[in-house]
Design brief:
Helix 8 (161-176) links the parallel strand 3 (154-159) and strand 4. The chain is globular. Helix 3 (45-57) crosses helix 6 (124-140), helix 5 crosses helix 10 and helix 11 (287-301) crosses helix 12 (309-322). The chain has helices at residues 10-23, 34-41, 45-57, 63-72, 99-110, 124-140, 144-152, 161-176, 195-199, 210-223, 287-301, 309-322, 334-337, 387-393, 413-420, and strands spanning 87-91, 116-118, 154-159, 185-189, 226-230, 232-239, 250-253, 272-279, 282-286, 343-347, 356-358, 366-370, 405-410, 427-432, 435-441, 447-454, 460-464. It starts with 9 loop residues before the first helix and ends with a strand. The strands form four sheets. A seven-stranded antiparallel β-sheet has the order 7-8-6-16-15-10-11. With 467 residues, it is of the alpha+beta class.
Length: 467
């Protein structure tokens, strides 16, 4: 594993987003020769075609794959050299408004078409299961070109934070399966907030002169430094019977019981449905989550409205106003008046093993568990805390690879607006170590939902930090 490198500060990365975009107008990209770059990052033809065939047939040992191997290693065949910087790109062509399809075409100019995967047709878990397995199979047969390609492989994701997290989660399965090394990952920001991209210096928006910028990005990911990023596992447990429309990162799993050392209120349902997933940025419970969920469905139902980061942010702001975040008293829904009515939080603090119940402030209507130094398009709601305050509260300095989550609360839209403007910090609630469990109780009934956050067996994900 690479030595840990701290992400750049949020304020610096947030303010540099426009600067990075303006740099695209310079001639910096012209110094990278297009043909030389293509030569260094493009796989030998038989490898990239074999990987594509394996993914399309969903079989790493398909007949077409075997034929390509035999042809490349037939008697008299010319020897091939591995790429110096083998790179695979995943692109969400639906992200970035009109730039998605154009960016895909540009990437296919700079490398072989088979190395650019559109996530609408090829899912990252298919690449891991079949594409990488194809390389590994070739390497096991003594193919040194395939072995070096697999060892030096790097991933570039063009999309928003959700897309990047989806790819990182699938790559994380390699560690569980003992299929090392796990390829490090870089980002081309195409989303609305791009907090993951900001935290590691890749910028917060798609650059203006993006054609030159893409060349610089491919060059940087080829030999840039890597940093570590905490990987967190989320388990959602709820009474059986209701199907959830879950994101890609959350999948149905078998029932997982609560920690027996944790004392909970009420009785658990007889049958439950469980969902498991991984997150790297943050997750929220309450009004913030309600607005994000509504915006997600609105964007899916009317994609023509979401044509880029600016329009997305305008829609998101408008949707916030319509959901009671600013103007309504939420008198009909006690859960939206205050999470204290429906939420219980139990945590394990750093250097401690016992559970501790945390009081949910009565004024809080949104709880956020934050892993990154960036939230809400480059803001830092946790704030830069003074040493005396941290000592008093038992807090540690927050980093993306410290094995800690920061839990904070937002009271209402006006409070959130001041936090987002960085005039004040959010309401600090806790900083936890490996686990956090939130128990929701509605209308005096028994437990209706359980969140468990676990640092897991693979605490770090390798990600490129742009210098």
């Amino acid at each position: 594993m690479e030595p840990s490198r701290r992400p750049t500060s949020t304020s610096a990365s947030g303010r540099s987003s426009m600067i990075d975009s303006l740099r695209g107008f310079t001639l910096a990209g012209a110094r990278i020769d297009k043909e030389e770059l293509r030569k260094k990052i493009t796989f030998p033809a038989y490898l990239r075609k074999a990987m594509r065939e394996a993914i399309q047939s969903k079989n790493a040992n398909a007949t077409g794959v075997a034929r390509l191997y035999e042809s490349a290693h037939a008697e008299g065949a010319e020897p091939v050299e591995p790429a110096e910087w083998p790179v695979v790109v995943f692109i969400n062509s639906k992200s970035g408004g009109r730039h998605g399809p154009e960016l895909k075409a540009r990437l296919e100019e700079l490398m072989a078409e088979e190395q650019v995967f559109d996530l609408s047709t090829v899912k990252p878990h298919e690449f891991v299961q079949y594409g990488l397995s194809c390389l590994e199979n070739f390497a096991s047969l003594g193919d040194t070109c395939a072995r070096e390609t697999r060892e030096k492989l790097k991933i570039l994701v063009a999309g928003g934070d959700g897309t990047v997290g989806w790819v990182l989660g699938c790559l994380g399965e390699l560690n569980k399966q003992g299929r090392l090394p796990v390829p490090p990952t870089g980002v081309i920001p195409l989303g609305t907030g791009n907090d993951l991209s900001r935290s590691f210096g890749w910028g917060g928006s798609f650059p203006f002169n993006w054609k030159s910028s893409v060349k610089r990005t491919l060059d940087k990911i080829a030999h840039g430094p890597t940093a570590r990023l905490d990987s967190w596992q989320v388990l959602l447990s709820m009474p059986a019977g209701k199907e959830l429309d879950t994101p890609y990162s959350l999948k149905a799993t078998e029932e997982t019981p609560l920690d027996p050392e944790l004392e909970v209120e009420g009785e658990s349902p007889e049958k439950v449905s469980c969902y498991k997933g991984v997150f790297y940025n943050y997750f929220s419970i309450g009004m913030d989550a309600r607005v994000a969920h509504g915006f997600h469905h609105l964007r899916n139902e009317r994609p023509y409205l979401a044509r880029g980061p600016i329009s997305n942010k305008m829609i998101y702001s408008g949707y916030s106003c319509s959901q009671g975040w600013f103007f309504t008293p939420c008198s009909t829904d006690p859960g939206l008046r205050s999470l204290k009515n429906i939420l219980r939080i139990h945590i394990k603090k750093p250097n401690r093993s016992e559970w501790e119940k945390i009081t949910v402030p009565s004024s809080v209507r949104s709880i956020v568990a934050l892993n990154l130094p960036s939230y809400g398009s480059g803001r830092h709601p946790w704030g830069k805390l003074k040493p005396d305050y941290m000592d008093k509260r038992g807090f540690f300095e927050a980093h993306a690879d410290d094995g800690l989550l920061e839990i904070f609360g937002l009271k209402h839209g006006w409070h959130a607006s001041m936090v987002m403007a960085e005039l004040i910090s959010a309401k600090h609630i806790a900083q936890l170590r490996l686990y956090d469990t939130s128990l929701g109780v509605e209308n005096g009934r028994t437990v209706t939902c359980k969140w468990t956050v676990n640092h897991g067996n693979n605490p770090w994900t390798r990600i490129f930090r742009r210098m």
